[in-house]
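ok trying again, last paste got cut off:
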Amino acid sequence: MNWKKFLLGISVVVIAGLGFYSFNPDQRNFEIAKNLEIYYSLFRELNLFYVDDVNPGELVRTSIDEMLQSLDPYTNYIPEEQMEDFRFMTTGEYAGIGALISKQNDKIVIAETYEGFPAQKFGLKAGDIILEVEEKSTEEMTTEDVSNLLKGPAKQPVKVKLLRPGDKKPFEVDVVREKITIDAVPYYGMIDQSTAYIRLSNFTANCSEEVKKAFLELKAKKPTSLILDLRSNPGGLLMEAVKIVNFFVPRGEEIVSTRGKVKQWDRTYTATSAPLDTAIRIAVLTNRASASASEIVAGALQDLDRGLVIGSRTFGKGLVQTTRDLSYNAKLKVTTAKYYIPSGRCIQALDYAHRNEDGSVGFVPDSLISEFSTKKGRKVYDGGGVVPDIVIEPEQLSNLSAALLTKYQIFDFATRFSNENESIPSPDNFEITDYIYKNFAAFLKENNFAYESESEQMIDELIKAAKEEKYYDHAENEFASLKAKLEPHLDKDMEVFNKEIKSLLLNEIVTRYYYQKGAIRSSLDGDDVIQKAVEQVNSPAAYSALFEPGIIISMNRK
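nice, full thing came through this time. structure:
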């Protein structure tokens, strides 16, 4: 096909389709037609006269992506070849082997296998290095390239060549693909006799049914309180959020409304079904990565004074996207509205409509933040996420722990440990003993592990500045003494950050044997946010006190 004729045809059709607007006195419509014609003529001249050959498809894709990026990060073009990934984001389903892969030290590695799916059934393990897929070397591939090769028709085999750390010879496995459905509720259970716990990881299609099933099963055990964990939940389908709030509020209660430029997007969503429970005490856990639909659930329950929000301020995404069909089986995911939770506040944090001079996006200014009230009269504010009723900021990892993670030392030790130990006790009973911890310390020395502390980085910057300003020679000995005192000492720091590192090791090792469910279960007892939530919801007096009128939920940004 002659691409120039094809592009001309599309341009003529588009301009003709908008042509009647040109005779409309509305200048905006004239500008649309005019600029489309300019775009076509510019593209034609580029192709004819640019010094090197150009790829028309890549140029158009770049122009589309840059145009949409200038609006907001959520308005995206989805070509036909990416529709599978888009469907996975909304449904949680795809056909493949059921494994998470990552690139570590220039190798494609299985980071995690999903319980009950082909990778696990066929004996693949976290830590295995993927050398080939369908006899194609992965050496120069990205994780996306390898992922696309592993996906394919269900019930069809895919040949994978792997090397297991510690083994000398690679091995091959024909893994039969299956339809993979990622559970939106990776874990639920009783924390104690009176406290039910549900972790919801995303808002994919029918996730509300998973939450309902989990809650009804737990309700049979007669809990008096529920912890709904939405930490690091990026959101998803708005209707699923509405249904989940409806489980706990009476029929007819307003949950969220949307308002946009086009009136068809203006809609109010109310509770349309009989609730499952309107009396159980609820704590919703959030953090900075709780976004979109997560914020609808947390914000609506807060505004209706139906549950406490505990943790850290949420992300602040108050924009609603709708998908529109395009030519050639592509789609446009476009921001069509903002959503407003029951108090009337919108929790969008970044103001994409009013950018700074350099094109950057800033927070909604404090001068434009407005005050609202919950159902019982508590003061809440818009302009940037849901602020918890009880704020618990997560502790920052030490530089040592961060280095252990980013340099894959914890991952690699867990790989060696699982290859050498056939089993471990249940998640409730397994612990990182002093013996295991000593072995880990020896493992680090064996690998010549080294890291730099933040203090050391700062003293290096100070020395550099002192040399530039010619002060260094006057205090060389003092600088050397201070640098020696601040230099990281692995043995000492392993002891100082013992608890933190053991927690990271525990999570990684338990995942190898009991997968995601086991890892979540083993982490509950040491989770400070969960323990605070248990304490709060199991004290009727303390719980009720936070809903009293006059309570102000801080508007300060963190």
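cool. The mean pLDDT is 89. Residues 3-78 form one domain.
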